[in-house]
Amino acid sequence: MPATNAKKLLVIDGALGTQMIDRGLRMGDCPDLWNLDHPDKLQEIHKNYIEAGAQVITANTFGANPIKLSDYGLQDRAEELNRAAIDIAKSVCPAGVLVAADMGPTGKFLPPVGEGSLEEFAESFEIQAEIIKKAGVDLILIETMYDLREALVCLKAAKKTGIPVYVSMTLDRKKRGFFTIMGDEATVCMKTLEENGADAAGANCTLDSAGFVELTPLLKKSLTSVPLIVQPNAGQPVIVEGRAIYEETPEHFERNMKLIIEAGADIIGSCCGSNPEFTRVNAKLAAGRS
Description:
By secondary structure, the chain is of the alpha/beta class. It has helices spanning 17-22, 34-37, 39-52, 66-69, 78-91, 118-135, 148-159, 186-195, 209-222, 250-262, 276-289, and strands spanning 10-11, 56-58, 98-103, 139-145, 165-169, 172-174, 177-179, 200-208, 228-233, 237-240, 243-246, 267-268.
C-alpha cells in the first residue's frame, strides 16, 4: 500500500462518468458496456489523468456488481465487464502509477427504505471482489456509499481479496452536521470503517470543495491510524437542457484544496464534474508537499 503522511500526498484521478458523458455516454446507457464497446475512449481518459499527474487511476468497474448490472440485464456478465475494465486501465498504466478497481453501491436500498438484504448485497460484492482479485489490481476503492451497512458489507467482501481497500462515503451537510442520506453521521462512519479494517477512509461526491473545507477537519479527527481520502465534486450541479453542469473552476478548486490539505487530507482526488485539469491542480499541490 502506498505510504501517505502529512508531507506526502497520494493523488487519485478525477471523474470517470463525466468524461464518458463528454465522449457520448447517454442517459440510460450502461457505463460498464463501454469496457467492451469503447475501450479506446476509456484508454484516452485514463491517459489524460495520468498525464495530469494522477498516481492512481480507477478502472470503470463502479457499477459492475451483479445487482447493479441487473438493471440492464447484464448480471451474468460481471466477470467479462470487470476484467475488461481492469485490462483497459492496466494497458495504459506506466510503472509507478497504480490501478484501482472501483466498487460502488448496488443502487438498491435496505429496509426500512427498500427491500434489499445484506445477504444479497454480500453475495453480489463477493462475486465482484473475487473477479477483481483474479484480474489483478493494486488497490480497491469503494466509493459513493450512502448506507454504512452496505459499505461494511462491501468492505468485508473486498478485504477477503488481500488487496488494500479504501472506503469513501458520500455525505451532505445537515443542520445537525454531516450525514449520509440514510442518516449515518460522518464521524461514526469514519470510526466504524477504520475499526472494520479499511486501509483508508474518507468521503467523495455530493459536496463541492467548499463543503469539504468544513468537513475535512471532522473526518480527520475521527481517524486514528489510517489515511484520509477527500474527493470533492467540481461544484454543485446546475441542470441545463437536461444535463448536469458543474461550474467550479480549477482555480477555485485549488484555493479550497489547499485548505483541505492543511486540514489533514492524505489522499486527494476529485469527483463529479471534474476533469484532468482538477487532477493537475492536485498533482501540483502534492508536489509542493513532497
